[in-house]
From TrEMBL:
Residues 472-547 form the tRNA synthetases class I (E and Q) anti-codon binding domain. Coiled coil: none annotated. Its EC number is 6.1.1.18. This is Glutamine--tRNA ligase. ATP binds at residues 33-35, 39-45, 228, 284-286. It comes from Dokdonella fugitiva. GO terms for cellular component: cytosol. It catalyses: tRNA(Gln) + L-glutamine + ATP = L-glutaminyl-tRNA(Gln) + AMP + diphosphate. A motif ('HIGH' region) lies at residues 32-42. Monomer.
């Protein structure tokens, strides 16, 4: 793999290795919460974590950050693994933060024994009231000075399930006057009698994210814990927990670590924050994406209009294009929004090189070549790729009656139109030049067909083959063509920043309800034979992918991945 752009995280790793920090090792993790499908923003974190580890000979774990039982589901656990693999990465080992519940519990008792944590009986509302504000210090909880014995007893009873949800919490004893609100005696554990997707009903108490995350990193031997900027203010708590616990010297976690399949080599990880990746014309929060699915505004998490990895996969975005996109976007501490069209540019670049060319007609108009026999049946050899002979050739059936695109013919052409008009000439791709002799009308006056004559002297290999006409159009042979369902997708949102609520509207108000259009198309047989998920260029139309669920060679279904040019460009 090409080295990651010289971003600041890479520079930190280089500097750490130069002084032998972490023994020169690099170990990262990608820690999704299994409460939804991964989206393009997650791909930035995946590319960064796996990319940095690979570049420095280290490795990356996949860890399900599953400490919040209410919103998590095994469906997401499975989908996340499939999506990371699809993006082209493989983890060193797979873990669940919930695998560490025992270790986390043992560590919490250590904090209690050292007078660094206490059981608090304040309600959630009271905690909020005691917490203070940005400008005012908080007040100590009346339960803060409980004895170690009482705290241990209460915490053990919390674990035993003796108390109701929300009745008590375990809180770190840090500093209620801290300028950083995250250090004002933050909760470490809460009571939550909910079945967990991994641990079932084993635990009535669940660790809070900040506490669970730093300990999980340490027990997995993570060296560089990369996270997004909103955790910058949480870093002092991350460090505080690890300082208090001194995990490498905790004999009591060696056995639980062994049982969790960990070597027992606790590291001292460092948290480094970077800016989230954002794209215009889309939303990238699992909560909002979940709402689109729940409200039926899209056809599921893998709807090709969705910015989920499952969605863009079905849309036909190659994983290499997503990796290239985030690599070029770079990694910084400045929040920014990247134009979706930049990603589409990466998609075109990859597909231009990888997609075989085929012919398809999306809006068919009959063209009859009157100087050919009704029985004429020919197979014309076409290159599969104009720039790469390795793609080989195929034979495209050709006959007297063809389908062409309706908008490649005009009776009264708009200005500058260079394709077929009555009495005019156009080149049929790979065939030769035809002249339109007359137009056949339906009873209602609409066009039923255009009759043409083929100038056989202009066919490939004939003396007139080089004769110039302004336009070239594609076609498929009517009697050989296969009927296909083609789904044409546009952007899901009508505004560049659907998250902007300053005008009183929410993202739901900006949904483009005609972002999906389905047409019946005619495609050449070689296109129908495409494998599912195979990307093709339909000449002059765009890049399309054989739908990963619905496509068969008998009933082809294609999704438009992207048009050939940026139709949104100003
Ligand atoms: P969401 O708000 O969409 O639920 P999240 O951050 O809560 O996102 P997690 O499952 O916790 O989702 O994310 C897993 C990892 O991916 C985290 O380390 C998180 O920081 C990172 N991540 C999430 N969104 C982005 C993004 N837009 N850009 C870069 N990294 C991201
Ligand atoms: Mg999160
Ligand atoms: Mg979230």
């Amino acid at each position: 793999a090409a080295p990651a752009a010289g971003n600041f995280i890479r520079q930190i790793v280089v500097a750490d290795r130069a002084v032998g920090k972490h023994g020169g090792r690099v170990k990262t993790r990608f820690p999704p919460e299994p409460n939804g499908y991964l989206h393009l923003g997650h791909a930035k974190s995946i590319c960064l974590n796996f990319g940095i580890a690979a570049e420095f000979g280290g490795n990356c774990n996949l860890r399900f950050d599953d400490t919040n039982p209410a919103k998590e589901d095994i469906e997401y656990v499975d989908a996340i693994q499939a999506d990371v693999r699809w993006l082209g990465f493989d983890w060193d080992s797979l873990h669940h933060a919930s695998d560490y519940f025992e270790i986390l519990y043992v560590c919490a008792e250590k904090l209690i024994r050292h007078g660094k944590a206490f059981v608090c009986d304040l309600s959630a509302d009271e905690v909020r009231e005691y917490r203070g504000t940005l400008t005012e210090p908080g007040r100590n909880s009346p339960w803060r000075e409980r004895s170690v014995e009482e705290n241990l007893d209460l915490f053990r009873r919390m674990r035993a399930g003796e108390f109701a949800d929300g009745a008590r919490t375990l809180r770190a004893k840090i500093d209620m006057a801290s300028g950083n609100i995250n250090l004002r005696d933050p909760a470490l554990y809460r009571i939550r009698k909910v079945t967990h997707q991994n641990t079932g009903d084993a635990w009535p108490i669940y660790p809070m994210y900040d506490y669970a995350h730093c300990v999980s990193d340490a027990v997995e031997g993570i060296t560089h814990s990369l996270c997004t900027l909103e955790f910058e203010d949480h870093r002092p708590l991350y460090d505080w927990c690890l300082d208090q616990l001194d995990l490498p010297n905790m004999a009591e976690i060696v056995e639980p670590m062994r049982r969790a399949g960990l070597g027992g080599a606790a590291s001292r990880p460092q948290q480094i924050e970077f800016a989230r990746g954002n794209l215009d014309y889309t939303v990238m929060s699992k909560r909002k994406l979940m709402a689109l699915v729940a409200e039926g505004l899209v056809d599921g998490w893998d709807d090709p209009r969705m910015p989920t990895l499952a969605g863009v996969r079905r849309r036909g975005f190659p994983p290499a294009a997503i990796r290239a996109f985030w690599d070029r976007a770079g990694v910084t501490k400045q929040n920014s929004v990247i134009e979706f069209s930049v990603l589409e540019g990466c998609v075109r670049e990859v597909l231009d090189a990888s997609a075989p060319r085929r012919m398809a007609v999306l809006d068919p108009l009959k063209l009859v070549i009157t100087n050919l026999d009704a029985a004429h049946d020919e197979a014309i050899e076409f290159a599969n790729h104009p720039k790469n002979a390795d793609f080989g050739t195929r034979r495209v059936p050709f006959s007297r009656e063809l389908w062409i695109e309706r908008d490649d013919f005009f009776e009264v052409p708009p200005k500058g139109f260079h394709r077929l008009v009555p009495g005019g000439e156009v080149r049929l791709r790979g065939v030769g030049i035809v002249r339109c002799t007359d137009v056949v009308k339906n009873a209602d006056g609409s066009i039923a067909a255009v009759n043409c004559t083929l100038d056989t002297d202009t066919r490939t290999g004939m003396p007139g083959a080089d004769r110039k006409v302004k336009g070239t159009i594609h076609w498929v042979s009517a009697k050989h063509a296969v009927a296909a369902e083609v789904r044409l997708y546009e952007r899901l949102f009508t505004t560049a920043d659907p998250d902007d609520t300053s005008d009183g509207k929410t993202y739901a108000d900006h949904i483009n309800r005609s972002a999906k259009r389905v047409v019946q198309a005619w495609i050449e047989p070689a296109a129908a034979a495409a494998q599912r998920e195979h990307g093709l260029q339909f000449e002059r139309l765009g890049y399309f992918v054989a739908d990963l669920r619905d496509h068969t060679d008998a009933k082809p279904v294609f999704n438009r991945t992207v048009t050939l040019r940026d139709s949104y460009a100003k």
